[in-house]
TrEMBL record:
The keyword Flavoprotein does not apply. This is Chemotaxis signal transduction system response regulator CheY. The lineage of its organism: Bacteria, Pseudomonadati, Pseudomonadota, Gammaproteobacteria, Alteromonadales. Residues 3-119 form the Response regulatory domain. PANTHER family: CHEMOTAXIS TWO-COMPONENT RESPONSE REGULATOR, STRESS RESPONSE REGULATOR PROTEIN 1. The keyword Secreted does not apply. GO terms for molecular function: phosphorelay response regulator activity. The gene is cheY. SMART domains: REC. One of its GO terms (biological process) is phosphorelay signal transduction system. The modification 4-aspartylphosphate is found at D52. Keywords: Phosphoprotein. It comes from Shewanella oneidensis (strain ATCC 700550 / JCM 31522 / CIP 106686 / LMG 19005 / NCIMB 14063 / MR-1). It holds the Pfam family Response_reg. CDD domains: REC_CheY4-like. SUPFAM superfamilies: CheY-like.
Length: 121
């Protein structure tokens, strides 16, 4: 079963994303911010990461930069799921290694489509 790490400071967003992903047959690990997410990267294979941008403690872009330094997760695809639709933020995310940018509010089928395309085998 493919494993996806969902990082968002909003419990309701984590819940909606988790339900959609589990319904599509994925295993979900959730984290409330970048620091919490980093603590859950314990060497196990993660097929995909979905992360918010604006979070307390460690924002999504800083988290993404940290993930990319880790040899085990360097090539793990990351989808940013955020209210941020500004070109500068999107470019910053892309430069940090984000593979896709899904803007909230999102439709679960739209997110699942991006997940299916990017999820590592």
């Amino acid at each position: 079963m493919k494993k996806i790490l969902v990082v968002d400071d909003s419990a309701s967003i984590r819940h909606v994303v988790s339900i959609a992903l589990r319904g599509a047959g994925y295993e979900v690990i959730d984290a409330c911010d970048g620091k919490d997410a980093l603590s859950k990267l314990n060497g196990d294979k993660i097929n995909l990461i979905i992360s918010d941008v604006n979070m307390p403690n460690m924002d999504g872009i800083s988290f993404l930069k940290e993930v990319k330094k880790h040899p085990r997760y360097k090539f793990t695809p990351v989808i940013m799921l955020t209210t941020e639709a500004g070109r500068d933020k999107m470019e910053e995310g892309r430069m940090a290694g984000a593979k896709a940018w899904v803007v909230k509010p999102f439709q679960p089928p739209q997110m699942l489509d991006a997940v299916a395309k990017l999820c590592l085998p």
